[in-house]
């Protein structure tokens, strides 16, 4: 499947490269852009950028700066700076170009290609060429892949006002699955997986896998306190893992997979106690431990955004309504 996709993409690249050399098309597009966008302030483009954005060419796969890029923020139009894609919608399509399964509302326009087979995507604001959109490939739930040239984009990292940036920490089994669900939650701006609670400094995955270092596989959830709050995230925590399991989580058994909620203040501790009491009143026998926040050690890079990079879904975590 992956190899076939690479061959198809290489063929697409060659055909697009030829069409990029079509000077007739270039003249028409440049003219169209000028007449449509009298008042729009456009950035100066290099010859390489023009070959893609104006002449609808395609960059060589696996060469773009955003192909393997997983920071939090928005991907904006290189030509007009309009925000086009959120980093939360990015996944690894293994095709050599940045892949997104959704666009920012009304930011991207779809145009049937002249070849009658594919659908071109352009910036809805300036008409700059982005790439193509494909449906029905089954990569993610949305079943859509915007295949975008890196060179058509500019990444803008998310900047939070300091007083609205808050952090919460949870442990609930395999951290890949925990991250998968928290990363989708409203108001969450960044997630990192790592290790908390153990005895040694800077633990490695190999060390914590022994189940003897005292570390839990944990997740650091950075959120915007104007959009969400600790209680909302803590409720989600109790609903995306089984807080009644006493020996681990799902098939993952061991001390490092135990359910633990960390509190950074007395207020947060009281919220957790309230939620546990609510669940126990509903008949759940809660096994979740409560611990004060201690040092969070980031896990190795290959564990970060694991499911997002793989385009897969967790084996161990799913949402169950409990409140
Ligand atoms: Zn644009």
Could you explain the architecture of this structure?
This protein is of the alpha+beta class. It has 2 domains: 2-157, Metal Binding Protein, Guanine Nucleotide Exchange Factor, Chain A (Beta Complex); 162-310, Peptide methionine sulphoxide reductase MsrA (Peptide Methionine Sulfoxide Reductase, Chain A, 2-Layer Sandwich), CATH 3.30.1060.10. 26% of the residues lie in helices and 25% in strands. It is built from 8 helices and 17 strands. The protein has helices at residues 2-20, 23-36, 47-53, 175-182, 205-209, 230-240, 266-281, 306-310; strands spanning 73-77, 83-86, 90-91, 99-100, 108-112, 119-123, 129-135, 144-148, 153-157, 165-172, 188-196, 216-224, 248-249, 252-253, 259-263, 289-292, 296-298. The strands form 4 sheets. Strands 3-4-8-7-6-5 form a 6-stranded antiparallel β-sheet. It has a 6-stranded mixed β-sheet with strand order 16-15-10-12-11-17, covered by helices on one side. A 3-stranded antiparallel β-sheet has the order 2-1-9, with no helix packed on it. A hairpin with an 8-residue loop joins strand 7 (129-135) and strand 8. It is elongated and about 60 Å long. The two termini are 41 Å apart. The chain binds zinc ion.
Question: What's the helix and strand layout?
Answer:
Blueprint: H1 2-20, H2 23-36, H3 47-53, E1 73-77, E2 83-86, E3 90-91, E4 99-100, E5 108-112, E6 119-123, E7 129-135, E8 144-148, E9 153-157, E10 165-172, H4 175-182, E11 188-196, H5 205-209, E12 216-224, H6 230-240, E13 248-249, E14 252-253, E15 259-263, H7 266-281, E16 289-292, E17 296-298, H8 306-310
Parallel strand pairs: 15-16
Antiparallel strand pairs: 1-2, 1-9, 3-4, 4-8, 5-6, 6-7, 7-8, 10-12, 10-15, 11-12, 11-17, 13-14
Bound molecules: zinc ion.
The site of zinc ion has 8 residues, from loops.
């Amino acid at each position: 499947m992956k190899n076939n996709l690479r061959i198809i993409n290489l063929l697409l690249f060659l055909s697009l490269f030829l069409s990029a050399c079509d000077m007739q098309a270039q003249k028409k597009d440049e003219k169209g852009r000028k007449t449509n966008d009298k008042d729009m302030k456009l950035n100066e483009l290099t010859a390489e950028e023009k070959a893609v954005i104006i002449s609808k060419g395609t960059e060589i796969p696996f060469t773009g700066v955003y192909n393997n890029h997983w920071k939090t923020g928005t991907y904006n139009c290189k030509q007009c700076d309009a925000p086009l894609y959120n980093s939360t919608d990015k996944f690894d399509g293994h095709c050599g170009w940045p892949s997104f399964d959704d666009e920012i509302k009304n930011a991207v326009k779809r145009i049937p290609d002249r070849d009658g087979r594919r659908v071109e995507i352009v910036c809805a604001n300036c008409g700059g060429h982005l790439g193509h959109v494909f449906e029905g490939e089954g990569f993610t739930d949305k079943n859509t892949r915007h295949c975008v040239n890196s060179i058509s984009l500019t990444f803008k990292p998310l900047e939070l006002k300091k007083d609205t940036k808050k952090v919460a920490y949870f442990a609930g089994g395999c951290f890949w699955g925990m991250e998968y669900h928290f990363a989708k939650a409203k108001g969450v701006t960044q997630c990192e997986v790592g290790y908390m609670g153990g005895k040694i400094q800077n633990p490695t995955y190999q060390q914590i896998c022994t189940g003897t270092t005292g570390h839990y596989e944990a997740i650091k959830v950075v959120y915007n306190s104007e959009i969400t709050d600790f209680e909302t995230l803590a409720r989600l925590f109790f609903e995306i893992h089984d807080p009644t399991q006493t020996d681990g989580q799902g098939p993952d058994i061991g001390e490092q997979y135990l359910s633990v909620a960390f509190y950074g203040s007395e207020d947060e501790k009281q919220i957790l106690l309230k939620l546990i009491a609510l669940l126990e009143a509903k008949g759940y026998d809660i096994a979740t431990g409560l611990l004060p926040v201690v040092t969070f050690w980031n896990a190795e890079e290959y564990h970060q955004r694991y499911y997002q990079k793989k385009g897969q879904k967790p084996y161990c975590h799913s949402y169950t309504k409990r409140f």
